[in-house]
Every structure is written in C-alpha cells, then in structure tokens.
C-alpha cells in the first residue's frame, strides 16, 4: 500500500498549495427573482428532507417533519393530500427524559418514503428516537396503523445519516441501529430473509450514508448474474494510519439473492464487499475524500450505468468541491477480480491493513451466486462453504480502488460546497450525447454543467432558495414534456425547469449558452427547449461547442433616446448577463476609452460625467465573448444622447435664490482637480463660466446649494427600483443636510461626506438611497448658522418592471464605488488646496 504517497498528497493539501484558479465560472447567474420557480412550503412545517416521485401518477411525495404531502409534480404549489404524523405526548416526554430536545429532536422526522406497490408507500419516521414504519394507503392517504419497529430502517436521531432503496418490495437501508447512533448497519428488511451487516469495524466504521440504489443484472447475459444493491458512504479509514481521523469514501454492494450463511454469517450478508472510491486530481495534489451524494445514470442509450458522485476534501480550507464519474464495469471488476485486504497485528494490539496475497477460497468470497457457482452446485448462499464465508467475514474490504473515468474529476470548483447531484442525458441536435450535471450547493444554488472535450462548462447558476440555505435533496424527473428538478431544504421545496432557453433573446446568446437543451428557432426568432418540441426541424441552430457563426448577422436593435443637461451625468444602462463576456462601449462606432476620468464603467452601466455638446451621439454597448479563439460580439444596448439647453428646473419656492438657479448644471464628480492651479489663497480660483457659481462668491460664509440630482438624470425611476439622489452644498462649517420625502423627514439611508475647504467653508455631498412605488417629492435642505437653503425634486415612477433585491444591492455597490471615487477626488483636491496655501503663506 502506497502510504507514503498518500501522506505526501495530504501534506500538499494541508499546505494549501495548488490553490490555482479552480473551476469554470458559471456563464449565467440567475438570481432567485429572475427565474420562474414553483415553491411549496407550509407554515410551521420544516425539514422537507425526503422526496419521492411517482412519475406514472404525476405526484411528488414530500416527507417533512411530522407530515407527508402529495403534490402535483407538474405544479408543486398544488397540494393533493397531507397527512400529519405526530409523536404521541407520552413518547415525547420519554424522549425528553433521555436528554433530547422536546421542541426539535423529539419529533417525527420522515426519513423513508418508498413505493411498496402502486397503492401503498412504505414510510418511516424517527418518532422521538423510537423509529417506526408504516404503510401509507395512497387512495385514502391514511396510514394503515402497522406501527412496525423502524430500528435499522430509519435513524433514531434526525441528525444522523440514512439512505434506503426499495427493491421488489424489500427495503434496503443504511442507517444506525441504536439510540446512541453508535451501531451502523446496512440491512434488508424482508419477511423471508432479513439480512444485515456484521457489527464489526472492518465492515462499517463510523459511516455516514449518502445513497443507495439497485442495478439490475443484464437479463440477456449468459452469466445469470444477480441484481446488486450499491451503498455509498464515507467512513473512517482502517487502512491508512494518520494523525487524526482520515475519512474514506466507499462504495459497497450486496447481492439481491443473498440468503446469508447457514452457520457462519447466519442472517448476515455473504456478499458484502466494499472498496475505496478515488476522486483526486491526476497529480494527486487534491484529494476529495468525503462523498456527499451520488446519482446513478441509467439510460437506455448507455452501454452501462455511470455513477456520479459529489465530493469535498476533509480539510476544506480552500472551499473546494468535485464531481467524479465511475464506470460500473470498473466497480464490478474491483469486486469480482480485485485483491482483498487483510488485517495484520503488529506490536501487541496495533493492527495494520495490508494486501492479502494468499490463496483465495472458492467460490470467490463475496461473489453473487451466478452461473459458475451454480455449476459447482452452490445454488444459494446457504450452501456456501465455511471457508468462503469466513474469508468474506474477515475481508470485506478490497485492496483495489475504484478509479474515476478519465482518472480525474469531471469538475472541480472553488468557493462552493456541493451537496447533491442529479444527471440528465441529453441528445443534442447533431446526435452527440451530453450528460448534464445538476449540482446543488449548501447556499441554495444549483449549478448546471456539461463536460466538453475534457473541459468543463457551467452553463448556469440558479439561486433556488432565496434564503441561501443548503439544498438537502435533489430529484430529477426526465419524463417527456415534464422535465423538472425538485429541491428540498429545511424551509421548503422548489420546482425548477431544467433549462431557461427562453431567457436568451438572440441567436448568438442562445448558441453561446452551450446548453444542449436549447436551440435557436430562426423563423420564430426564439430560443426553444428542444425536448419540449414534438419534432426537430432542420433549420434550428445549436452548437454545444459554442460556435455561433451560423447565426444570422442581422439582429433587431432598439435604441433608447436620452436628453441631458449640460454638465450633468449620464447613466447608460447595459445589462449583459454572461459572466464570460466582456463589455465594450462604442461611441460613434469607435471603441470608447473608458479609462478616461470622463467615464466610469459600472457593472451594468456606463457613467459619463460633465456632459457637453461633444458627447451627443450614438453609444453602443457590445458584449464580446470568446469561445475557443473565436470572438462573438453582439450589441446589447444602444443609447442616443442629445444635449438639452440649460433650463432652471428646480426652484426653491421659499428662497428662489439666483445662485440656485445659476447652479442648475451639475458636475459629477464636482469641480475637480483638473482646473486647480496654484492660486493665492486670498483670491478665489478663476473658473470657466460653465462651472457653477459656487466658488466665485466673495461671501465666504454664504450657503450654496445645488439642487438634487438623480443617478439617472432622466428623473424617473422604476417601481421599487432603487435610485440615488445627490445634493451638494458649500457653507460654513456647521452646515448639515436634512432630507425630506413627501414632507416627512428621512432618517435612514442618508449619507453625507464633507470636506473642509481651504477658506474655512465646507463642501458637503449628501445622498439618499431609496425605492418608491409612487411619484414622490424629495427635498434636500442645508441648515447652517449662515442660513438655510432647500431644494426639491419630483421623482416620477415609470414602467412596471421591478428590480430584484440582489440587483439592487449590486447597483448600490456600484454607486458606492463611484462615490468613493468622488471621495478620493475631493481628498486630492483638498491636498492641492492645502499645498497651494502653504506655498503662499511665507
Ligand atoms: C430542521 O429545520 C430547522 C429549521 O430550518 C433546522 O434548524 C434544523 O436543523 C433542521 N433539523 C434537521 C434534523 O434537519
Ligand atoms: C435482450 O435481447 C432481446 C432479444 O435479443 C432484445 O430485444 C432486448 O432488447 C435485449 N434486452 C437487453 C436489456 O439488452
Ligand atoms: C468507461 O466506459 C467508457 C464507455 O463505456 C469507456 O470509453 C471508458 O474507457 C471507460 N473508462 C474506464 C476508466 O474504464
Ligand atoms: C456535435 O457538435 C459538437 C459541437 O460542435 C461537436 O463537438 C460534436 O462532435 C458534434 N457531434 C457530431 C456527432 O457531429
Ligand atoms: C467639463 O467640461 C468642460 C468642457 O465642456 C471643461 O471645460 C471642464 O473642465 C470640465 N469639468 C470637469 C470637472 O471635468
Ligand atoms: C434654519 O432652519 C432651522 C431648523 O429648521 C431653524 O431653527 C433656523 O432658525 C433656520 N435658520 C434660518 C436663518 O432661517
């Protein structure tokens, strides 16, 4: 056993080396409000942890805390049935007496929901640490009252891991067998032949179960092989010595026809074998040794099932996750041909696990009863010789490991913890097959990814749960016309389509998405989900490689018209969604040099300061995306800017001061360093006459106020969309701002920055962040001992589009950065003033 290799590898992991930029960036990020998802949640109901789909009936069964629901799987907001399954008061008290929490732990958490037949579900719950199972009649949606002991089928403790699968009416489960959770078990619940694992460390060592599924034998094969049930879990290693506990991801399997042994391994599995699952980078620098979930892709188009697992490293200081895929044949080979491990005692009580190189008894220990065994007259596991049984009892662990397809993870991603996985096999228009991986995160998001030519492409990231809570279960329905994903969390269940093709409005966008579900339908000019269409047409455009050159050049362009005042600031919006694209602005067909202080490029807009005649014209926002050395660019937004003659717009009714009117042009950032030359401190700086009259005043203590201006000079905002209003003033050092909205004083969301000027006055910039549903009047007043000034503006609400909360935050952040830029400028300015002053004093 290459222990030293593992040490070295883990050492590197400790060293947090190889922290290279891992993983592709999702091309599109859909915020929760940007996508149409269906939610199901009931007040006072939590822990929607168990989901079961009945595809035939279009029903989604949901097991939550103390309740089971039957929902319409096409629209989960529609509830068909609910059944409360509560713990009796007596049981609750007993549970609390044992030191468990009456409000949380001593409740009934539904952990098993499995179909027994068309009309009955087998259900189990933790039932205040006394697990029970029952039959749920689907007609009446009532329990039959069987109250079977759920020990070994359902955990006692809701915090403990569990997995189960129903195979031909018998429940196979992996869980713990006692109150303390210290006795792990993989068992078959069956009247004829209940079987379980040996309670011994070599069999199961503090496992954490994640998944179980059955794989049917090939009925056409001449091998007459048995159906096999696979279990996946992480457990403590016995084979590696390590400082502290080293976890190992495992795959184990049992055979369906196993009957246990006659004397040795009586009522125990005679076919239980387990092996290590490897998920490491080829250089072994990163070892993913915790398995979080598994999905077994069984598609008619596949020669053999493919096992997909999501992993995280044990010491996850880098926040990494990985997806590894395994061929079933690789797994089978390990169990049917691989070497076994055996324990050897070194120095008194210390045991070491090493490869077993001795003779292997016949029939092969742990093998299912197949044609070969039958030919040797072993018709059932009950006939197996003691030698074989004793061997498997002592050697359940394989020395060979299961290596992933391609010897590397399919996906490695940084800064994310993957929790669950489902995979859909999609045939693209040109006949190529893609395994689309849907991987959920512990922050309520979903990543949809494909692997392409050994590379990885994350098509999109979808925020399924608005509160960023972990996704605990993920289910895929791949029924034609009803392809949906269902995700369960502590607070509810979400139903999501598998693709958002209709969100792509141009052919280039539709193709660049590289989504095998989506294609461009030219004559309708829409991006469609190919699996929803009845027949495929020739002229659809799709290229999962991302080559959009077959898209037509002509696209309809709408342009937005703006008129702006001289000296003001323009905000030209351009929301391009792709995280892989670069935004390029063009003005009069030339690329704009946005590095110039005249411009500021925000995430979703371009700001142009101090507008003048020369700035009028056509602005185009282009999104440029590179795919394999090919660059695709498309116009995302087009703005036409036109300057308006200066007109006094905001007049203070109380003090219609001339200064206010004169200063109706608003420079932003305010009059800057560009014209600051060293002038005598006793003579005010000479200014060009386009500048506001603020600085030429000889009355040093006079209060000057510029009227409020909006970040978007259009002076109207969208319903509930955030905006910022700015006011600037100069005045004596005690000057301060007061904001009023519809006559009411505003206290929240008011910010202020003030800077002392060399002549003793202060310059104050104040702004408010707000969102309104109706037209509102805002007043900004500057109060000081030298006098007060008020200016007001009416904000009108236009359009019905609401802006999402997240977008809101981003916008605010963008503005914050713009404002901090302003701050830097003010500082700069002050320094210059001060240095000028110093020079003049002597
Ligand atoms: C159940 O949900 C509650 C509320 O979100 C959460 O605090 C708790 O940890 C969950 N319990 C289990 C066992 O998942
Ligand atoms: C088994 O063989 C029959 C006939 O040769 C064929 O029609 C069927 O598809 C095969 N089934 C499988 C699972 O390969
Ligand atoms: C897995 O199976 C595929 C096709 O069945 C094959 O191309 C590939 O080489 C196999 N990989 C491994 C590691 O055996
Ligand atoms: C389908 O298109 C993709 C992307 O261009 C390409 O990689 C693949 O080879 C094509 N498949 C077939 C069968 O032509
Ligand atoms: C604003 O633009 C004018 C020309 O239109 C220029 O003279 C002035 O210096 C600019 N002001 C700032 C602060 O850049
Ligand atoms: C300015 O406003 C404050 C508060 O509203 C008021 O107390 C003060 O008298 C006003 N000053 C002048 C000069 O109007």
Automatic annotation (TrEMBL):
Residues 17-498 form the Sema domain. CDD domains: Ig_Sema4D_like, Sema_4D. Keywords: Cell membrane, Developmental protein, Differentiation, Disulfide bond, Glycoprotein, Immunoglobulin domain, Membrane, Neurogenesis, Phosphoprotein, Signal, Transmembrane, Transmembrane helix. GO terms for biological process: axon guidance; negative regulation of transcription by RNA polymerase II; neural crest cell migration; ossification involved in bone maturation; positive regulation of axonogenesis; positive regulation of cell migration; positive regulation of intracellular signal transduction; semaphorin-plexin signaling pathway. It is found in: Cell membrane. GO terms for molecular function: chemorepellent activity; semaphorin receptor binding. It is a single-pass type I membrane protein. Residues 1-21 form the signal peptide. GO terms for cellular component: extracellular space; plasma membrane. InterPro entries: Ig-like_dom (IPR007110), Ig-like_dom_sf (IPR036179), Ig-like_fold (IPR013783), Ig_sub (IPR003599), Immunoglobulin_dom (IPR013151), Plexin_repeat (IPR002165), PSI (IPR016201), Semap_dom (IPR001627). Residues 552-633, 707-796 form the Ig-like domain. Belongs to the semaphorin family. This is Semaphorin-4D. The lineage of its organism: Eukaryota, Metazoa, Chordata, Craniata, Vertebrata.
């Amino acid at each position: 056993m290459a222990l030293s290799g593992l040490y070295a590898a883990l050492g590197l992991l400790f060293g947090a080396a190889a922290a290279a930029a891992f993983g592709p960036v999702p091309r599109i990020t859909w915020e929760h409000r940007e996508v149409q998802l269906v939610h199901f949640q009931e007040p006072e109901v939590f822990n929607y942890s168990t989901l079961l789909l009945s595809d035939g009936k279009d029903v989604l069964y949901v097991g939550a805390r103390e309740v089971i629901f039957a929902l319409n799987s096409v629209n989960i907001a529609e509830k068909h049935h609910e059944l409360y399954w509560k713990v009796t008061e007596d049981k609750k008290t007993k549970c609390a007496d044992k030191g468990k929490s009456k409000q949380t732990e001593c409740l009934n958490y539904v952990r098993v929901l499995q179909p027994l037949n068309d009309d009955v579900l087998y259900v189990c719950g933790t039932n205040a640490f006394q697990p029970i199972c029952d039959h749920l009649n689907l007609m009446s949606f009532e329990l039959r009252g069987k109250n079977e002991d759920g020990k070994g089928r359902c955990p006692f403790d809701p915090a403990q891991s569990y997995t189960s699968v129903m195979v031909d009416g018998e429940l196979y489960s992996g869980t713990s067998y006692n109150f303390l959770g210290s006795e792990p078990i993989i068992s078959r619940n069956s009247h004829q032949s209940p079987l379980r694992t040996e309670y011994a460390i070599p069999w199961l060592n503090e496992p954490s179960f994640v998944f179980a599924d059955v794989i049917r034998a090939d009925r056409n094969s001449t091998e007459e092989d048995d159906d096999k049930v696979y279990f996946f879990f992480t457990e403590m290693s016995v084979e590696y010595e390590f400082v502290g506990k080293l976890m190992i991801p495992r795959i184990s399997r049992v055979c369906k026809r196993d009957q246990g042994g006659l004397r040795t391994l009586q009522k125990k599995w005679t076919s239980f074998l387990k092996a290590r699952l490897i998920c490491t980078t080829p250089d072994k620098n990163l070892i993913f040794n915790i398995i979080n979930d598994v999905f077994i892709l069984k598609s008619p188009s596949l020669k053999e099932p493919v096992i997909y697992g999501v992993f995280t490293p044990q010491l996850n200081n880098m926040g990494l996750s990985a997806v590894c895929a395994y061929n079933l044949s690789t797994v089978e080979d390990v169990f049917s041909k691989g070497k076994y491990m055996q324990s050897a005692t070194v120095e008194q009580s210390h045991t070491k696990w090493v490869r077993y190189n001795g003779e292997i008894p016949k029939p092969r220990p742990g093998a299912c009863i197949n044609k070969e065994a039958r030919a040797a007259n072993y018709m059932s596991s009950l006939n197996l010789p003691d030698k074989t049984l004793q061997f498997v009892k002592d050697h359940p662990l394989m020395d060979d490991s299961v290596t992933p397809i391609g010897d590397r993870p399919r996906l490695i991603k940084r800064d994310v913890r993957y929790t669950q996985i489902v995979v859909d096999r999609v045939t693209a228009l040109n006949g190529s097959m893609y395994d689309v991986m849907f991987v959920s995160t512990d922050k309520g998001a979903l990543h949809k990814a494909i692997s392409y030519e050994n590379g990885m492409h994350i098509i999109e990231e979808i925020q399924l749960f608005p509160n960023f809570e972990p996704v605990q279960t993920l289910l895929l329905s791949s029924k034609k016309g009803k392809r949906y994903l269902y995700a369960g969390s502590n607070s509810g269940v979400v139903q999501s389509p598998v693709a958002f093709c209709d969100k792509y409005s141009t052919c280039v966008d539709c193709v660049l998405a590289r989504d095998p579900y989506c294609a461009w339908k030219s004559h309708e000019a829409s991006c469609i989900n190919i699996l929803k269409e009845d027949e495929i047409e020739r002229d659809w455009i799709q290229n999962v490689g991302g080559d959009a050159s077959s898209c037509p050049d002509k696209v309809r362009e709408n342009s937005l018209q703006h008129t702006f005042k001289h000296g003001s600031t323009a905000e030209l919006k351009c929301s391009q969604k792709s995280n892989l694209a670069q935004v390029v602005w063009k003005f009069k067909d030339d690329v704009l040099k946005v590095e110039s202080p005249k411009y500021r490029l925000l995430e979703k807009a371009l700001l142009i300061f101090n507008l003048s005649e020369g700035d009028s014209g056509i602005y185009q926002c282009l999104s440029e995306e590179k795919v394999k050395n090919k660059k695709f660019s498309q116009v995302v937004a087009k703005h036409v800017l036109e300057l308006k003659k200066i007109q006094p717009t905001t007049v203070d009714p109380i003090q219609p001061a001339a200064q206010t009117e004169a200063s109706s042009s608003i420079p932003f950032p305010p009059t800057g360093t560009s014209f600051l030359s060293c002038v005598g401190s006793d003579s005010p700086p000479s200014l060009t006459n386009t500048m506001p009259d603020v600085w030429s005043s000889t009355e040093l203590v006079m209060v000057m106020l510029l009227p409020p201006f909006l970040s978007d000079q259009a002076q109207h905002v969208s319903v509930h969309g955030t905006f910022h209003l700015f006011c600037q003033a100069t005045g004596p050092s005690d000057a301060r701002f007061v904001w009023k909205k519809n006559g009411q004083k505003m206290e929240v969301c008011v910010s202020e920055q003030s800077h002392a000027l060399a002549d003793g006055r202060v310059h104050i910039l104040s702004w408010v962040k707000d969102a309104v549903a109706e037209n509102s009047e805002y007043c900004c007043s500057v109060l000081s001992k030298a006098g007060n000034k008020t200016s007001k503006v009416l904000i009108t609400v236009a359009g019905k589009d609401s802006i999402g909360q997240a977008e809101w935050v981003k916008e605010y952040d963008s503005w914050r950065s713009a404002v901090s830029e302003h701050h830097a400028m003010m500082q700069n300015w002050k320094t210059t003033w001060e240095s000028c002053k110093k020079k003049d004093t002597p």
